[in-house]
Amino acid sequence: MVNYRNQLLQTADKEGGAMMKRQQYNQTWEELPQCVQRYLQRVAPEPLPNLKSLSYQQRGEVSLWDGRWDNFTSSGLITAGGLVLSGIVEINSAFDYHYSDVYVEGQGHRVGYQSGMCMSGILYAQNVEVRFTSPLYPLCYDFLAEGEDRDAKDINKIEGSNWLLDSVLTPSLLRPEAGVVTWKADKTHKDGKELANSAVVTLSEKEHEQVWATATFNGEGLMTRLEYTKRRTIPDPRPGKRPSYHMTKWECRFSEYQEQERGMWVPLHVERGMVPWGSFRGKDGDYDGFLLDYRADRVALEYEFHD
Question: Backbone phi, then psi, for 38, in 5-degree steps?
Answer without folding.
Answer: -65, -40
